[in-house]
């Protein structure tokens, strides 16, 4: 990638980020109402989307990953980028041929009988071509895009500059957005997807997992032709689940197809091991014989045995009201950031779970939801990437299932498949959870209604405590904002002094800028220090 192209790419992304930061800061200073903020985020999302399509490449992949971070980003922004399709124009064949020759160490006809020079599919990281091996076997050849490594370095360098600037100079929402952690997660996911040898290992894992399942087809992989930049797989034909005409010609009905899909994906979501994190209609097909075909294992998530144990213990802790244990599990799972205070989280969980849905008829639900949201958003909570991918996998599959069967049919099928899966697990923690769910009517009857009536006052008490805890934080933050405004004013004055050649204005502006910059960094330091030690210092006073 040429240096000029790199600078152009970086400048476009940085200018977009700078404009967004200015808009956000301006809205915060003017204390715009919620409706205006929604319009702003919609506008920002549209600009972000336009820039991604203009620059293509890795940024579209980053946009896709951000679109599943609804736990961190505003809804209006998410709506603008949630349907991003990772489709970009294919590369020149000469460049693809050069990569294949370099990876295979010789001419293509040493390995292939033929290869179509037109890409079957083209995305930001890889392109897929159809080829024929020497023995006549058709194969899908996934090739890493030319110059993608250079593009990645440029884009990550640009993102690191943006995050550094935002972390040090932009007043971000408190507590629930950790930009450094988000950047780390994005980088880990993309670097993993770049290494086709890891995708090959994921494919082999799924082959082993479903080797005894007749209703699932995983393509074979040709390891001798696969490298970190090339992945050669068996060519598999299938019907897309969105192809209504093709699905209607199958020998079984759509309800049965939905059941087969649930049988394939439910164990992935509940058991330790990898799960397919991107099961859209292009990656999940059905053969004419009724087998479920899984393709593209570049984006996979993993539920470790340790996570599975913590997750089950979390559910047990919530159901048995052992909130210290539940908070401990949330910490181990990575949902709570280091600055989270366990005792506050225990209180929040206790209040959120102390009422029953059937008792909400007499309450102002909107007011209650806003009250709870205010508290939760002030807490240092972030969903780890591996669980975001789990949610993505579930929601994507749910959308396809709803096109195949009615909601009542899906509930019936899901219960049938879940009970079948549960019977294979033996007597474990999931049995406890299932029996608890079945006992809900009795639980609702004996639950204390008086505790529920105290909920609004308890929520108000917790909110008041949090407000007092952040009072000093707000003082520092206000001083920091004022100094930032003074710095901007100084820069404007310097520009005016230079333009008019007025030395007095220039000297005064320089003095103001230096003074305000020093003050800004002092209060930034105080702000960070207070955030770090706030709980320990204030605990005895609150």
TrEMBL record:
Keywords: Membrane, Transmembrane, Transmembrane helix. CDD domains: ABC1_ADCK3-like (cd05121). It comes from the Bacteria. SUPFAM superfamilies: Protein kinase-like (PK-like). GO terms for molecular function: ATP binding; protein kinase activity. Residues 114-443 form the Protein kinase domain. The keyword Transmembrane helix applies. The chain crosses the membrane at residues 12-29, 505-525. Belongs to the protein kinase superfamily. ADCK protein kinase family. This is ABC transporter.
């Amino acid at each position: 990638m040429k240096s000029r192209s790199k600078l152009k790419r970086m400048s476009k992304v940085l200018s977009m980020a700078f404009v967004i930061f200015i808009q956000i800061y301006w809205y915060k200073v003017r204390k715009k109402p919620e409706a205006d903020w929604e319009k702003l985020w919609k506008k920002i999302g549209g600009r972000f989307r336009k820039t991604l399509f203009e620059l293509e490449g890795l940024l579209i992949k980053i946009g896709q990953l951000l679109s599943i971070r609804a736990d961190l980003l505003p809804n209006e922004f998410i709506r603008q980028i949630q349907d991003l399709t990772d489709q970009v124009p294919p590369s020149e064949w000469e460049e693809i041929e050069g990569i294949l020759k370099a990876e295979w160490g010789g001419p293509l006809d040493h390995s292939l009988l033929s290869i179509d020079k037109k890409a079957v599919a083209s995305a930001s990281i890889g392109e897929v071509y159809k080829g024929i091996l020497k023995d006549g076997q058709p194969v899908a050849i996934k090739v890493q895009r030319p110059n993608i490594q250079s593009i990645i370095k440029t884009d990550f360098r640009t993102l690191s500059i943006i995050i550094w600037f935002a972390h040090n100079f932009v007043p971000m929402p408190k507590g629930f957005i950790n930009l450094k952690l988000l950047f780390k997660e994005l980088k880990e996911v993309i670097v993993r997807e770049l290494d086709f040898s890891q995708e090959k290992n994921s494919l082999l894992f799924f082959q082993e997992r479903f080797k005894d399942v007749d209703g699932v087809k995983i393509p074979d992989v040709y390891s001798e032709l696969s490298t970190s930049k090339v992945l050669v797989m068996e060519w598999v034909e299938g019907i897309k689940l969105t192809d209504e005409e093709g699905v209607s010609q199958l020998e079984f009905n759509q309800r049965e197809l939905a059941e087969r899909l649930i049988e394939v994906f439910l164990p992935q979501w509940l058991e330790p091991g990898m799960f397919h994190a991107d099961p859209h209609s292009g990656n999940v097909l059905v053969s004419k014989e009724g087998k479920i075909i899984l393709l593209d294992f570049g984006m996979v998530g993993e539920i470790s045995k340790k996570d599975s144990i913590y997750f089950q213990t979390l559910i047990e802790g919530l159901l048995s009201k052992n909130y210290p244990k539940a908070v401990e599990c949330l910490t181990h799972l990575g949902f709570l950031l280091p600055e989270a205070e366990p005792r506050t989280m225990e209180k929040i969980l206790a209040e959120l779970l102390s009422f029953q849905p059937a008792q909400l008829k007499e309450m102002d639900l909107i007011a209650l939801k806003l009250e709870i949201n205010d508290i939760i958003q002030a807490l240092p909570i972030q969903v780890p990437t591996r669980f975001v991918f789990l949610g993505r996998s579930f929601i994507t599959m749910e959308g396809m299932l709803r096109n195949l069967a009615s909601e009542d049919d899906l509930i019936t099928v899901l219960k049938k498949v879940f009970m079948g899966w549960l019977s294979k697990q033996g007597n474990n923690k999931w049995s406890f959870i299932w029996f608890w769910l079945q006992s809900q009517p009795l639980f609702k009857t004996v639950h204390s209604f008086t505790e529920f009536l105290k909920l609004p006052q308890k929520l108000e008490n917790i909110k008041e405590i949090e407000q007092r805890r952040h009072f000093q934080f707000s003082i520092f933050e206000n001083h920091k904002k004022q100094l930032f405004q003074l710095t901007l004013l100084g820069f404007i004055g310097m520009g005016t002094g230079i333009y008019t050649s007025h030395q007095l204005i220039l000297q005064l502006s320089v003095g103001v800028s230096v003074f305000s910059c020093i003050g800004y960094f002092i209060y930034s330091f105080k702000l960070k220090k207070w955030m770090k030690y706030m709980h320990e210092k204030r605990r005895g006073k609150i």
